[in-house]
Amino acid sequence: MAPYILAIDQGTTSTRAILFDHSGSVRATGQKEHEQILARPGWVEHDPKEIWANVREVVALALARGEATSRDVAAVGIANQRETAVVWNRATGEPVYNAIVWQDTRTQRIVDGLGGAEGSARYQARVGLPLATYFSAPKVTWILDNVDGARAAAERGELVFGTVDSWLVWNMTGGVDGGVHVTDVTNASRTMLMDLATLSWAAEIADDMRIPLSMLPEIRSSSEVYGVGRAGGLLPGVPIAGILGDQQAATFGQACFEVGMAKNTYGTGNFMLLNTGTEPVPSEHGLLTTVCYRVGDGPAVYALEGSIAVTGALVQWFRDNLGVIQEAADIESLAATVEDNGGAYFVPAFSGLFAPYWRSDARGALVGLTRFVNLGHIARAALEAVAFQTRAVVDAMEADSGVVLTELKVDGGMVANRLLMQLQADILGVDVVRPRVAETTALGAAYAAGIAVGFWAGEQDVVDNWAEGERWSPQLAEAERERGYRNWEKAVTKTFDWVDDDVEQ
Asked: What's 8's DSSP letter?
């Protein structure tokens, strides 16, 4: 068998291709950022054609750096930004509009109209999700309502919808010339259109949202062969055999296969998943019930998830909007110039607040300012905001599941920030553990694809490959930890009710 599995990790800000060997070690990588299109406040878009071009470029780069060809690749796995919605013409392959990104809040009026008297919980018992701008289906409704001719074309069966995984697989397997239109259960569970019990599309909900069923991809497992790379492409004949939404991919890569195991990914946003086993667990504390993974014909495994909209994106904002730092990594040294936050608290509700608050009317706030506060204090407050938001999710997760966290497995780009990891341990009061291979999102997609083609035997190989890299233990007294969290919760309340009904969200 070929010596490598290739993972494509298509994220919110960049696309990466990584070659993994049988030990789960990185052999070569390629990465490229794509444009964040911010036409109006609250709007976030990506160009699907740019993303597809970047995928081709980073795959070629990874192969070249690994001195490999497609013949050295046993299978391809895909991890993707999840709720981001793409609508394209099945005959021409052209997107009818930019991809609307998961962070985008323009669909608030659509969401409010769907909720009606029942409110945000209208579909939650069936799909595991509250009505919110976060999820894919209202974005599709917006495109069909606002792009000239789109609704009529969709009703004629000419348009298809998919999250980014579907867009990539369709193009990789031939596009207009026989491209496969599929998604996996993890991505389908983020649309608001999939019944968690049956793992099939809920026709009545699609009808409520005025989305023709003909637009929707076929729902498949997370680990099976969906098709092969098209002839003449970068990966001709290579099986595309794994699809996982990025956060579920990280959970898979962290070997969280037992009930009660949890991981937290620090990326553009933060996402914590807790494995709850083969039965979905409804949340009463602001979390999402979602599919964690499904391997082949095996049972689906479910998770509780706490989704935080803005964490790494806050550091990007410091860099790109304010120009305070030159590189994202510079925030650590700036925050290290002070011993505490100086009384300042930063609530980055740029896209409203996700779990456990679910307040789309919230907007960002920096509170507790005095003349004593300097840029170092504000940088530290930004890092603490990441850790405090995670603490709020952990509290909700423990309340829903009855499982008390004893340590937290972490991954994602921000875990390179050692100060942040120490702050996280201090604010949670438990150890924080980073794996030896930090690329767990890509690695999870690779494992799913490799298991499907026999490159790895199964989940036990994933467990055997996982190894601890670094650990941080709490150093903060409990009284000080609780005082800081109390002030954070007070700061959160200052962000509520900012967006009025007559303001475009």
From this structure: E
CA angle 246, 249, 254 (to 5 degrees): 130
The per-residue pLDDT for range 170-218, each reduced to its tens digit, is: 999 999 999 999 999 999 999 999 999 999 999 999 999 999 999 999 9
Whether residue 358 contacts residue 132, with contact meaning beta carbons closer than 8 Å, is answered with yes
Q: What is the pLDDT of residues 110-136, one digit of tens each?
A: 999 999 888 889 999 999 999 999 999
Closest CA to 94 of 86, 106, 103, 84: 86
Taking 90 as the threshold, does the pLDDT of residue 358 lie above it? no
- Provide the residue type at 381 as one letter: A
* Residues 505, 501: Cα–Cα separation, whole Å: 9
DSSP 331-379: HHHHHTTSSS-TT-EEE--BTBB-TTT-BTT---EEES--TT--HHHHH
How far apart are the C-alpha atoms of 132 and 450, rounded to whole Å? 35
223 beta partners: 242, 295
CA dihedral 310, 313, 315, 317 (to 10 degrees): -110
- Could you report the per-residue pLDDT of 428-463, keeping only the tens digit for each? 999 999 998 888 999 999 999 999 999 999 999 999
Residue 6 β-bridge partners: 19, 76
CB atoms within 10 A of CB 351: 24
Q: Which residues contact 40 (CB under 8 A, 6 or more apart)?
A: 106, 504
Rounded to the nearest angstrom, the gap between the alpha carbon of residue 192 and the centroid of all alpha carbons in its chain is: 15
Task: Report helix, strand or coil for 326.
Answer: coil
| Tokens, residue 71 | 């013949």
Break the chain down into helix, strand, coil percent, rounded to 5.
35, 25, 40
147 CB-side CA count, 13 A: 22
Ordered DSSP codes for 63-118: HHHTT--GGGEEEEEEEE-SS-BEEEETTT--BSSPEEPTT--TTHHHHHHHHGGG
State the chain's mean pLDDT as an integer: 94
Token pair in block for residue 287: 């979390």
Amino acid at 117: A
What is the sign, positive or negative, of the torsion defined by CA atoms of 131, 214, 294, 308?
Answer: negative
Contact (Cβ atoms closer than 8 angstroms) between residue 465 and residue 23: yes
Instruction: Name the packing angle between helices 478-493 and 418-428 (round to 10°).
Output: 100
Distance CA 146, CA 160 (A): 16
Put simply, whether the predicted model's pTM sits higher than 0.90 gets the answer: no
